[in-house]
Amino acid sequence: MTLQNESGSLESHLNLPKIKFTQLFINGQFLDAVSGKTFVTIDPRNGEVIAKIAEGDKDDVDLAVKAARHAFDNGPWPRLPASERGRIMLKLADLIDQNVEELASLDALDAGKLYRIGLVAEIPAAAENLRYYAGAADKIHGSTLRMAGQLHGYTLLEPIGVVGHIIPWNFPSQMFTMKVAPALAAGCTMVVKPAEQTPLSALFLAHLAKLAGIPDGVLNVVTGYGYSAGAAISSHMDIDKVSFTGSTEVGRLVMQAAAASNLKPVTLELGGKSPFIIFDDVDVDKVVDLAVRAILYNKGEICVAGSRVFVQEGIYDKFLVTLVEKVKSWVVGDPFDPNVHQGPQVDKNQYERVLSYIEIGKKEGATLLAGGKPAASKGYYIEPTIFTDVTDEMTIAKEEIFGPVMSVMKFKTVEEAIKRGNASKYGLAAGVMTNDLNIANTVSRSIRAGIVWINCYLAFSNSLPYGGYKMSGFGRDMGMESLHSYLQLKSVAVPIHNSPWL
Ligand code: ADP
């Protein structure tokens, strides 16, 4: 691990954005919060304030829901020809592409994400996500049914109504489009609450949505805290569905609030503790590369992080030697620097949380093979950290750390790998590394997780549904499954008189 830019000397070359939008976006207007309150968003590179942001709470959520309800009940959006909705979404996708530098830099500044990855991968992926659902907008249809008696039956797929999207801070722009795009295609209207750590790109995307021609009231953004603005969304009596991505603890609160209010359906994409299972027959160099990216991508702040690495005994020692070498060349530093692999954790809370898990790992008897400390004297940088001699019962093997911390475990047999891989309350993702087709098939079928990657990891695509088993949640983002979660099915029956066939 090498550290770049401890002195901050790069600052003058960085592509730092100007902050243009700091207010709530309701009914097509940027507005202060009703209370007039603001909160600060912090630069994780140094702990300094980036900007003051309007602090929306229940009153602001009420206004946003009112606007969304009006746009749904009376506005053009759900009534447009679906292809026209698609056309406007394509325009938004083009605007995202035209503003890729600005969006990538807002997320780098707000979340410590790598600017270069935002530029070439994550922001373009957000635009592509919109294009995928824009294309699907006019392909939403039900079925015709053969009913008993002189009856004709059919089903209609209708937009579910006003949607609340509560999103996390680890992929601010991509999460925004991942939630918003299928709901827009379905003809819904919505209120988005970005995480309090990362409000900037959501407000900029709202501005682009207006430029693209999305009618006022269809897409509203309320920035603010989870316990106030977020809770107001999940408990709102006039929101028809909530889609949430975040921690399992908060997912539970969202579901409780939904049940206690108007029984709105919820989609929950929650935590993970994903097994990355490596069998003896692989190319160790290549697999180490993948294992490193599986845990360190986005500084481990990704719910599918391959945090439990199971290595079969025959290659275990070689794997560890190669892993340590690889991690030595992993550069932690300023996320705007193109040579850096890992930026700072998103905020002080997460930084301290990750460091405290590292301490717990040491206390419970795991061996610290690499890293384990802060990686800079200022900012929320943490060294890539590897533990070995980790048992399945240790806290670091059970709880989601959400940071650059890998636990490596040794195993002997396929059965053992499956059993231990499944020994988690979570079931979000898994990786299986082998050239043996039978093992790959057996393990991928046996692992209880919403997504299994064979000889790859973090392979996402708009068409690939994504979500969890067990306490990783339910419902799916991406794919046509996500679109369907913003639709509801109406069955229609009508008598047919004098049909020659009846
Ligand atoms: P993390 O623990 O990874 O920060 P959270 O689950 O706390 O993730 O946050 C994810 C999103 O949920 C954020 O937008 C946050 O503001 C929101 N949130 C937090 N608490 C609540 C709550 N009680 N009700 C609704 N949303 C909440």
Task: Using brief descriptors, characterize the structure shown.
single chain; alpha/beta; Aldehyde Dehydrogenase, Chain A, domain 1; Aldehyde Dehydrogenase, Chain A, domain 2; 2 domains; 7-stranded mixed sheet; 24 strands; disordered N terminus; binds adenosine-5'-diphosphate
Structure in words:
Helices cover 37% and strands 21% of the residues. It is an alpha/beta fold and 502 residues long. It has two domains: 9-270 and 474-488, 3-Layer(aba) Sandwich (Aldehyde Dehydrogenase, Chain A, domain 1); 275-462, Aldehyde Dehydrogenase, Chain A, domain 2, CATH 3.40.309. The chain has a seven-stranded mixed beta sheet, with helices on both faces. The longest helix has 22 residues, at 115-136. Residues 166-168, 193, 195-196, 225-227, 230-231, 234, 246-247, 250, 253-254 line the site of adenosine-5'-diphosphate.
